[in-house]
Design brief:
Elements (H helix, E strand, L loop, with lengths): L2 E3 H11 L4 E5 L2 E4 H17 L7 E4 L5 H12 L3 E4 L6 H11 L3 E3 L10 E3 L10 H4 L13 E2 L7 E5 L4 E3 L13 E4 L6 H12 L3 E4 L5 H11 L3 E4 L1 H8 L3 H4 L9 E4 L6 H11 L4 E5 L8 E4 H6 L5 E2 L5 E4 L12 E5 L8 E4 L4 E3 L3 E3 L2 E5 L4 E7 L4 E3 L2 E3 L1 H9 L6 E9 L3 E9 L7 H9 L10 E5 L12 H9 L3
Parallel strand pairs: 2-12, 4-5, 4-6, 6-7, 11-12, 11-13, 13-14, 14-15, 28-29
Antiparallel strand pairs: 1-10, 2-3, 8-9, 9-20, 15-16, 17-24, 18-19, 19-23, 21-22, 23-24, 25-26, 27-28
Helix pairs in contact: 2-3, 7-8, 8-10
Length: 485
């Protein structure tokens, strides 16, 4: 094992092939040498204005070349990149500023955040000259510190337990290789897209990031750049699958070696059609939290033998318990607990406490079960479960059935107070209400769900209910409808 800093790897890559394209966004690109040069220039500029080793630096840039330049600059200073959405409401920005206390915020207008150095989008630091050559080699103690609102909606930082170092002799993680291209349609402020993009970049791959997800543009990018890897979430998979056949099947996707999907439950029908389309050998699913206590991975071939599973974890790293913390028998659903086998923490929370059991077990609030072979099957978040008429109903199962309908763009299912059943199932649907046949949808769902799981009420909206990373905050949707925001 030969551990080296991320920044040394980037310097080595630039020295080996300076003109090879490193990142592309909206048909603008930076070569390896250009990315490193701009990162050095920004690092020197930030250092001159007080950013030092171990500082947090918030990155509010949307998907762009600026995002990658910012990360390189931050690592060069030994600081910690702390990504956030560029569209956060001011109240949430203020809360994150209190938690992270960053010395700079990149991607926001000058003077827009009191007391912080603000670096606007499109800013180009002056050439650092000799000052850039004198940057000492330092290592960020944490290579990332993304935020998460979880089920509470209150932001917290999840500071990585890994420094900005890698094994220079190990294969690039996530089957990315070191000679290919990844198409990234997801938002880089989310952990998955950032991890896949950074690992691909550090592996020497070409990272093609879309400004925002677009189904047809994703296929076009795979074809144009000869992508070998694709990152998706099931929401993206569905929107791509719903493209006209001449667009979907007309795209040349022969270069793809691996298609990853993660971040939200994937309906079985959707996974099956992608396997039928691209082949089981190219489809991979990963389940893990940003906290990275452990992870499961399942190949398309394995999934066909264990339909609905998200894979098998390393022995001793996943268990299922009842509400009292007692381990349940094989096949019985309960709360999913995970633990790391490392000697050092995989993460540190700022602004929250982990949910723990004795023995190093931690829960992210997911429900699930293990089969006799050790394969994990997920249910839903415990906090999102709906208790209706004495039955436990998991929104993801109902949403999967609704999403199967061709007229539905996205959906979310919540429970609303009901005098009779305690909670009634309420479906919020993104669709064209004027042309939607609700009776036909009810019949459609009746063929797929038991009676007590059928929504009692429906609501139509014209805006997406999930973000580009496939995330939905059901607690916030419920609060909006109850007027308890």
């Amino acid at each position: 094992m030969a551990m080296i800093p991320f920044t040394r790897r980037l310097r080595n890559l630039a020295a080996a092939d300076p003109d090879r394209v490193a990142v592309t966004c909206a048909h603008e690109s930076l070569t390896r040498a250009e990315l490193l040069r701009r990162g050095i220039d920004l690092a020197v500029w930030l250092r001159e204005r007080g950013v030092v080793e171990r500082d947090m630096v918030t990155v509010a840039a949307p998907n762009s070349l600026d995002w990658f330049v910012a990360y390189v600059a931050i690592w060069l200073l030994g600081a910690v990149p702390q990504p956030i959405s560029s569209r956060l409401p001011q109240r949430e920005i203020d809360a994150i500023m209190d938690l992270a206390n960053p010395s700079a915020v990149i991607g926001v207008p000058e003077g827009s955040i009191d007391g912080r150095l603000c670096v606007p989008m499109g800013f180009r630091a002056p050439h650092a000259g000799a000052a850039g050559d004198d940057l000492p080699e330092v290592v960020s103690y944490a290579w990332k510190a993304p935020t998460s609102g979880g089920s509470t909606g209150r932001p917290k930082l999840i500071v990585s337990g890994d420094p900005a170092m890698l094994d220079d002799e190990a294969p690039t993680p996530l089957l990315l290789g070191n000679d290919g291209c990844i198409v990234m349609p997801g938002p880089l402020y989310h952990n998955g897209p950032a991890v896949w993009s950074c690992q691909a970049l550090l592996g020497g791959n070409h990272v093609v990031v879309l400004p925002r997800f677009d189904a047809e543009a994703t296929l076009a990018a795979i074809e144009e750049y000869g992508a070998t890897s694709l990152y998706t979430v099931p929401t993206m998979m569905k929107r791509i699958w719903r493209l006209p056949d001449e667009v979907k099947f007309g795209a040349d996707l022969g270069s793809l070696r691996v298609v990853w999907h993660l971040a939200e439950p994937c309906p079985e029908w959707l996974k099956q059609v992608w396997i039928d389309w691209l082949g089981a050998d190219r489809i991979y699913e990963l389940y893990a939290g940003t906290e990275a206590q452990t992870a499961t991975v399942i190949t398309g071939q394995e999934w066909l033998a264990h339909r609905g599973s998200v894979g098998k974890a390393a022995p001793g790293t996943v268990k299922i318990t009842d509400a009292d913390g007692n381990e349940v028998p094989v096949g019985e659903q309960g709360e999913v607990w995970m633990r790391s086998t490392r000697d050092t923490p995989t993460y540190i929370y700022v602004g929250a406490d982990a949910r723990t059991l004795d023995g190093g077990w931690e829960s992210l609030g997911d429900m699930g079960r293990l089969d006799a072979d050790g394969y994990l099957y997920l249910g839903d978040r415990a906090a999102d479960m709906i208790l209706s008429g004495g039955a436990n109903i998991y929104p993801a199962e109902v949403e999967a059935a609704i999403q199967e309908h061709a007229g539905v763009h996205s959906c979310a299912v919540i429970g609303l107070p009901d005098d009779d059943k305690g909670n009634a199932i309420h479906a919020i649907i993104e669709a064209d209400e004027a042309s939607f046949d609700l009776d036909e949808l009810r019949s459609f769902l009746a063929e797929r769900l038991v009676v007590y799981k059928l929504p009692r009420t429906f609501e139509f909206v014209d805006t997406p209910l999930r973000d580009d990373a496939g995330k939905v905050r059901r607690s916030a949707l419920r609060a909006e409808r109850l007027g308890t925001e």
